[in-house]
Amino acid sequence: MNPETLPIRVLVCDDHPMMREGIAAVIASQPDMCLAGEAGDGREAVAQYRALQPDVALIDIQMPDMNGIEAIQAIRAEFAQARIAVLTTYRGDARALQAIRSGAQAYLLKSALRKELTEAIRALAAGKRYFPAEIAAELANHLGQERLTPREVQVLQLIARGHSNKQVAGDLALSEDTVKGHLRNIMDKLGANNRTHAVTIAIERGFIGL
């Protein structure tokens, strides 16, 4: 490394201490990187970013108090040039699209970290984007498909919790026929055979969470 080149300063945001330690160890093993700081939840991530203003931030999607998507939105609202990678267990395309729309420039799966992690950090620091091949492929496969509406997501989330059509109708102040209509649209958009299949697909693709 050129003596005049400063190391890439990285902020790691994840609610699991062991995950943070593992990422910190990878960063410490790289001559052109250093750990700027850590955060254990979304609000702390925003506060730490504001205080440290790192070159790159790695932010987990699922965090307490404020989730990763909300934290990214808050950071980008204040720091338009922030370079952020989403760190997640999930590979659902809906989550990836939501993260990208929120301002993330990279999407990393925790299951394939070490090599991709360092590549992503360098890419972001250089002003580039980074998406693993499997994530890019899923995004491409689903780009032409219709998105679920907010109301359809609400209906599906309640069904995933075991609610009947009647219960969903009561919770959302809709008629049962309207709920059935939403279900038909949902199954058409997801290519599902039945409501259970629709829930399974929606969870896999990240439209809803459990």
Secondary-structure blueprint of this entry?
Elements: E1 8-13, H1 17-28, E2 33-39, H2 42-52, E3 56-60, H3 68-78, E4 84-88, H4 93-102, E5 106-109, H5 114-125, H6 133-142, H7 150-160, H8 165-172, H9 176-190, H10 195-205
Parallel strand pairs: 1-2, 1-3, 3-4, 4-5
Helix pairs in contact: 2-3, 4-6, 7-9, 7-10, 8-9, 9-10
Q: Brief overview, please?
A:
Helices cover 53% and strands 13% of the residues.
Provide structural commentary.
With 210 residues, this protein is an alpha/beta fold. It folds into two domains: 8-141, Response regulator (Rossmann fold), CATH 3.40.50.2300; 150-205, Arc Repressor Mutant, subunit A. Helix content is 53%, strand content 13%. It contains ten helices and five strands. It has helices at residues 17-28, 42-52, 68-78, 93-102, 114-125, 133-142, 150-160, 165-172, 176-190, 195-205; strands at 8-13, 33-39, 56-60, 84-88, 106-109. A five-stranded parallel beta sheet has the order 2-1-3-4-5, sandwiched between helices. Strand 4 (84-88), helix 4 and strand 5 form a beta-alpha-beta unit. Helix 7 crosses helix 10 (195-205). The longest helix has 15 residues, at 176-190. It is elongated. One of its GO terms (biological process) is phosphorelay signal transduction system. This is Response regulator transcription factor. GO terms for molecular function: DNA binding.
